[in-house]
């Protein structure tokens, strides 16, 4: 280009400045600001009188009817290219929305949002083709604004999982979350998805029906979010998009987990919780784990809808959000696994293990590539620690049974509280037989009596045998707290029968089998025989004939009177004591009464029939022959009721017909 005269050069500078200001400034104040900026670059502009003094408003038109701010620069200035003009037009739209004022939302007006997106598209297209001055800077401004809009739209349109929504989902937790397989279709959703269906889509449908997948974003907001995401991806701002997306979604999911009672807590907070609060926390965690499949499936679906323009970025965003959810859940599980071993926590830990192991295949199916392996390893690590804690807690339970040294004898020989606690505990263990057999399959049973079981018994059955053997040994020791040998055997009968009944009424029966029950029945019969010997030998000895013969006149009435008197006193003593003893099981109570009747009543009937006539009709014969056989039979009905009887009760009972 040929050089121009100096004067013309000044004219060109002034003309160009006028054109820039009229093109970009929309008010006289903006024009004044721009004049000061341009004057700092070229002092000649500050010497031109009235250069911008008559700057018109944006609505003012010239004589031809065209807006004044569209006046073309002097012909002596270089004509801007068509691309530069397009860039300037797009800049006007973009710069109109101050990025420092995110409270003024573009998407309040669909038309305004459409214009802004069109301007962004123009800048992206121009920046891709040519390196125009200012294009990249304008694009950065636009992307910053879009990032703010994206964040605001995500927050505004978030369909918050409120407590009512979550509680409804919790009620549906009876639905089985299970992985799809090529050979079986999940019952909840009908047919399996086609094998060629994209994995992400199959994940959303393989085990959750529509009403089970949470709606995380209002449907009307998804299209707007996708429009923004498409531009940010196309412009090369993938990292910025991922950052804003994952930040918002992680915050929302954190709130969701808090609503479920599974919010972030430290190990120290978990370890210092009282059992009631911790038990509630563990139950809520279990529900949260089961619901996490629905939440994370919805997250994948949301990623598909919003970040549709990039498969890699979609996976990256989903991975970040889903890993946050899983990691927060696992932190609590890890704190429980590393915390204090307490027998009261065992069943909650088993529930936690089952819940986490149950969703592992489904959670793993949500991830791809290395993330799939990472999630599997993280969950397996927590499961492994939980499993070890469960086994150690079972060992602690056995130690607790053996170490219970309570020295207070229960009145009446009733079922001991330790027995109730242990058998209810063991009965619950049987309900987790599948899991416990898996955890105990190492075969280390710490020296239990193998004669009770056999090679075919499951690991849990062996462990149950061991625990019951600890209990039986402890009960045997506790029976010695009773001085009365008869009471010792009643106590053992009560407690062994309680163990047998608990086994027969539960899944323990399938673990221990009929032979085990038969052996315990035989044990109860032995205790019954020992009871009869201890309690009734003295009574029956009064009915023996020893000492009655020897008189030349036949029987000695004096000795006979003493025999009847001794029997009366012995029977009354047993009656008074053993009517307060308690045999809870009606069948055992009746069997004991029958056993007593079979020994006492025939002996008394024979003694009374043979020797009673020698005293009847004599002086005070009623003082010695106080009872008929029927009287004794009625008295036996009061045995083992556990009710202390007043002294007059015995006399009233005998007066009954």
UniProtKB/TrEMBL annotation:
<dbReference type="GO" id="GO:0006887">
    <property type="term" value="P:exocytosis"/>
</dbReference>
<dbReference type="GO" id="GO:0000145">
    <property type="term" value="C:exocyst"/>
</dbReference>
<feature type="region of interest" description="Disordered">
    <location>
        <begin position="52"/>
        <end position="78"/>
    </location>
</feature>
<dbReference type="Pfam" id="PF20669">
    <property type="entry name" value="Exo70_N"/>
</dbReference>
<dbReference type="GO" id="GO:0015031">
    <property type="term" value="P:protein transport"/>
</dbReference>
<comment type="function">
    <text>Component of the exocyst complex.</text>
</comment>
<dbReference type="InterPro" id="IPR004140">
    <property type="entry name" value="Exo70"/>
</dbReference>
<keyword id="KW-0268">Exocytosis</keyword>
<dbReference type="InterPro" id="IPR046364">
    <property type="entry name" value="Exo70_C"/>
</dbReference>
<dbReference type="GO" id="GO:0005546">
    <property type="term" value="F:phosphatidylinositol-4,5-bisphosphate binding"/>
</dbReference>
<keyword id="KW-0653">Protein transport</keyword>
<feature type="domain" description="Exocyst complex subunit Exo70 C-terminal">
    <location>
        <begin position="284"/>
        <end position="638"/>
    </location>
</feature>
<keyword id="KW-0813">Transport</keyword>
<dbReference type="Pfam" id="PF03081">
    <property type="entry name" value="Exo70_C"/>
</dbReference>
<comment type="similarity">
    <text>Belongs to the EXO70 family.</text>
</comment>
<protein>
    <recommendedName>
        <fullName>Exocyst subunit Exo70 family protein</fullName>
    </recommendedName>
</protein>
């Amino acid at each position: 280009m040929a050089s121009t005269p100096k004067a013309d050069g000044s004219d060109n500078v002034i003309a160009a400045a006028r054109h820039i200001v009229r093109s970009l400034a929309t008010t006289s104040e903006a024009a004044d600001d721009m004049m000061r900026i341009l004057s700092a670059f070229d002092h000649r502009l500050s010497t031109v009188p009235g250069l911008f003094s008559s700057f018109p408003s944006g609505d003012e038109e010239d004589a031809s009817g065209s807006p004044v701010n569209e006046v073309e620069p002097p012909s002596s200035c270089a004509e801007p290219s068509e691309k530069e003009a397009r860039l300037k037009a797009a800049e006007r739209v973009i710069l109109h929305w101050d990025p420092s004022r995110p409270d003024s939302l573009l998407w309040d007006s669909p038309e305004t949002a459409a214009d802004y997106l069109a301007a962004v598209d123009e800048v992206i297209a121009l920046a891709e083709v040519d390196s125009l001055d200012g294009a990249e800077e304008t694009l950065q401004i636009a992307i910053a604004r879009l990032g703010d809009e994206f964040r605001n739209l995500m927050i505004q349109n978030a369909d918050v999982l409120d407590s009512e929504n979550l509680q409804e989902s919790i009620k549906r937790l009876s639905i089985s979350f299970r992985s799809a397989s090529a050979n079986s279709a999940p019952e909840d959703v009908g047919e399996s998805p086609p094998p060629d269906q994209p994995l992400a889509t199959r994940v959303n449908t393989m085990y959750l029906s529509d009403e089970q997948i949470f709606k995380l974003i209002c449907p009307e907001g998804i299209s707007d979010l996708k429009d923004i995401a498409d531009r940010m991806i196309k412009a090369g701002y993938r990292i910025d998009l991922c950052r804003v997306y994952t930040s918002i979604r992680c915050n929302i999911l954190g709130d969701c987990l808090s609503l479920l009672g599974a919010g972030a807590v430290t190990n120290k907070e978990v370890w210092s919780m009282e059992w009631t609060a911790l038990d509630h926390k563990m139950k809520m965690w279990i529900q949260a784990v089961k619901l996490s499949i629905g939440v994370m499936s919805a997250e994948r679906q949301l990623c598909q809808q919003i970040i549709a323009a990039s498969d890699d970025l979609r996976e990256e965003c989903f991975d970040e959000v889903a890993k946050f959810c899983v990691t927060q859940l696992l932190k609590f599980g890890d704190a429980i696994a590393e915390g204090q071993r307490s027998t009261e926590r065992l069943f909650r830990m088993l529930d936690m293990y089952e819940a986490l192991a149950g969703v592992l295949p489904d959670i793993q199916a949500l991830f791809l590539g290395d993330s799939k392996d990472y999630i599997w390893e993280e969950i397996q690590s927590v499961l492994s620690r939980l499993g070890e804690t469960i086994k150690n807690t079972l060992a602690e339970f056995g130690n607790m049974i053996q170490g219970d040294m309570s020295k207070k004898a229960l009145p009446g020989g009733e079922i001991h509280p330790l027995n109730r606690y242990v058998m209810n505990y063991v009965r619950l263990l049987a309900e987790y037989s599948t899991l416990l057999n898996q955890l105990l399959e190492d075969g280390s049973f710490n020296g239990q009596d193998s004669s009770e079981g056999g090679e075919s018994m499951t690991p849990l059955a062996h462990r149950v045998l061991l625990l019951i053997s600890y209990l039986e040994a402890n009960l045997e020791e506790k029976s010695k707290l009773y001085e009365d040998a008869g009471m010792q055997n009643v106590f053992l009968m009560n407690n062994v029968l309680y163990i047998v009944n608990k086994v027969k009424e539960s899944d323990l029966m399938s673990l221990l089998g009929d032979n085990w029950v038969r052996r315990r029945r035989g044990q109860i019969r032995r205790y019954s025989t020992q009871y009869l010997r201890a309690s009734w030998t003295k009574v029956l000895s009064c009915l023996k004939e020893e000492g009655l013969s020897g008189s030349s006149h036949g029987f000695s009435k004096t000795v006979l009177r003493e025999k009847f008197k001794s029997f009366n006193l012995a029977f009354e003593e047993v009656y008074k004591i053993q009517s307060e003893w308690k045999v809870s099981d009606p069948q055992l109570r009746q069997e004991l009464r029958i056993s007593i009747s079979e020994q006492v009543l025939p002996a008394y009937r024979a003694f009374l029939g043979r020797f009673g006539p020698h005293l009847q009709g004599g002086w005070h014969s009623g003082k010695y022959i106080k009872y008929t056989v029927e009287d004794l039979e009625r008295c036996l009905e009061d045995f083992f009721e556990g009710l202390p009887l007043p002294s007059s009760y015995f006399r009233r009972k005998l007066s009954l017909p």
